[in-house]
Amino acid sequence: MTDRYASFVQSAAGRALVKRLGLPDPPRLRRHHPGDPLLAGPALLGAATGGRLAEPITKILTAAGVELADPTGANPQRYGALLFDATGITDSTELRQLYDFFHPQARAVLPSGRVIVLGTPPQECPTPREATAQRALEGLVRSIGKEFGRGTTAQLVYVTRGDGAAAGGPDLSADTHTGLASTVRFILSGRSAYVSGQVIRVGGGAASAPADWDRPLDGQVVLVTGAARGIGAALAKVLARDGAQVVALDIPAAGDALAAVANDIGGTAVQLDLTAPDAPTRLAEHLASRHGRVDVVVHNAGITRDKTLGRMDADRWDQVIDVNLSSQERINDVLLERELIPAGGRIISVSSIAGIAGNRGQTNYATSKAGVIGLVDSLAPALRDRGISVNAVAPGFIETRLTARIPLVVREAGRRMNSLAQGGLPVDVAETIGWLAWPASGAVSGNVVRVCGQSLLGA
Ligand code: NAD
Question: Which of 92, 240, 334, 411 lies 20 to 30 Å (CA to CA) from residue 217?
Answer without folding.
Answer: 334
